[in-house]
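Notes from hallway chat w/ T.B., transcribed later so I don't forget. T.B. wanted the structure written out for a chain they're using in a teaching module, and asked if we could keep both sequence and structure tokens in one place. Agreed to drop them here.
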Amino acid sequence: MGMSEVIVSKRDILLHERLRIISELAPIREKIRLFEEKYRMTFEEFERKLKSSEESFEAWDDYIEWKAYARKLTELESKLREIEHAQRIRIA
């Protein structure tokens, strides 16, 4: 009984990776949207307002969480762009 060979194309891998990132992006975008609705402003506006005033502990907690989501969003979006522009891929 010989080993059956599995052929995976570069395109398949990129497609899979792209779908994985897109599925991670959705809940992060949703969390960010909820913060934007709660405070009726973008993260940048919220950050400026927070740093120039004595806001509540709740606002600071939200800030820390929101900042983490904003960072993760940026990271995932740049990964997605890399995949969409990928010319070479190395399977490690």
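Follow-up for T.B.: The chain has three helices and no strands. Might be a good example for the class.
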